[in-house]
Design the sequence.
């Protein structure tokens, strides 16, 4: 994975929406009984997130109620930064893909649920959204490249999707795949990458309370560059596990080899749990750069979610849990 750190002085302060403004906007919209489109209008022109929100038929669903059980532990990353500093290799192997990602067509969007399930199906994303309970959670997000952010995701518990899919008792893994269409995603013309992007979790991980399917960000539909219309958030793992723009949920009894692992299994593994003491072969994971302040802060084991998730791994000592 390439690393390109943006220098602190490259960020113009007035290009950033401070958290206080975001919070005020939510309160004003709630008080006025307005949501979605109005929220997008207040977000301002020129932000690629605005274009995504205004053409998204799910816009009226947002903002959704916040689940206060999930707090970020430090201030939110400004929306402008979280929506313009991205990894989405389908649109380029650098951070400034937010404009290019607008080529992604997010409706109609069909999701396949297949493999070891009672009944395979294709379901339209809006139909799926209507069956799920949406809520907002603030999560920390730690990229393997040693930068991090804190963002308010909207979405639903992955365990609810697993329950809806009715996996058979021999299903051990859930594999997720991103769309594949090189006519809109030029990165997919780069044949040396093993497209489509693929990631997987054990069923125990997928049904853990923290595992979340993201459909929105900052009280609006998820911007394309952040992985609309569906992306994964598993905040105790490195960001590359958090697959974007999912079109398939496949249940299997075989451990999948994910996109980055296939490219380089010496550097990227299946588990990818955050651990400050286990170096990436080319750099330390002891600290991370907070995107909001530019400061380096200590990295925490399991990205600070140890209490919640450590028990998932108690009998797996011989596995490479931290890469
Ligand atoms: N999903 C797909 N399909 N393609 C990608 O290149 N990059 C991953 C992850 N999901 C990626 C992806 C990486 S390395 C990170 S750090 C996060 O998305 C970045 O999410 P963000 O752009 O919303 O911060």
Sequence:
């Amino acid at each position: 994975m390439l690393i390109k750190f943006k220098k602190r002085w490259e960020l113009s302060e007035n290009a950033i929406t401070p958290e206080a403004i975001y919070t005020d906007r939510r309160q004003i919209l709630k008080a006025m009984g307005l949501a979605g489109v109005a929220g997008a209008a207040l977000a301002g022109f020129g932000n690629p997130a605005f274009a995504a929100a205004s053409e998204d038929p799910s816009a009226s669903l947002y903002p959704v109620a916040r689940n206060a059980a999930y707090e970020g532990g430090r201030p939110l990353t400004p929306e402008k930064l979280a929506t313009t500093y991205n990894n989405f290799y389908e649109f380029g192997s650098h951070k400034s893909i937010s404009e290019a990602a607008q080529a992604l067509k997010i409706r109609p969007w069909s999701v396949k649920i297949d493999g070891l399930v009672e009944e395979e199906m294709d379901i339209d994303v809006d139909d799926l959204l209507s069956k799920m309970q949406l809520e907002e959670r603030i999560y920390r997000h730690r990229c393997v490249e040693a930068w991090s952010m804190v963002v308010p995701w909207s979405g639903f518990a992955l365990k609810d999707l697993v329950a809806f899919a009715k996996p058979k008792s021999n299903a051990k893994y859930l594999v997720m795949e991103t769309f594949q269409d090189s006519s809109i995603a030029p990165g997919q013309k780069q044949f040396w990458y093993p497209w489509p992007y693929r990631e997987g979790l054990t069923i125990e991980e997928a049904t853990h309370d923290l595992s979340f399917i993201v459909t929105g960000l900052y009280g609006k539909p998820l911007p394309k560059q952040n992985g609309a219309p569906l992306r994964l958030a598993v905040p105790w793992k490195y960001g590359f596990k958090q697959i974007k723009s999912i079109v398939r949920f496949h249940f299997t009894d075989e451990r999948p080899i994910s996109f980055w692992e296939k490219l380089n299994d010496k550097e990227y593994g299946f588990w990818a749990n955050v651990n400050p003491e286990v170096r990436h072969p080319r750099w330390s994971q002891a600290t991370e750069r907070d995107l909001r302040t530019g400061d380096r802060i200590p990295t925490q084991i399991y990205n600070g979610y140890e209490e919640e998730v450590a028990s998932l791994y108690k009998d797996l000592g011989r596995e490479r849990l931290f890469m």
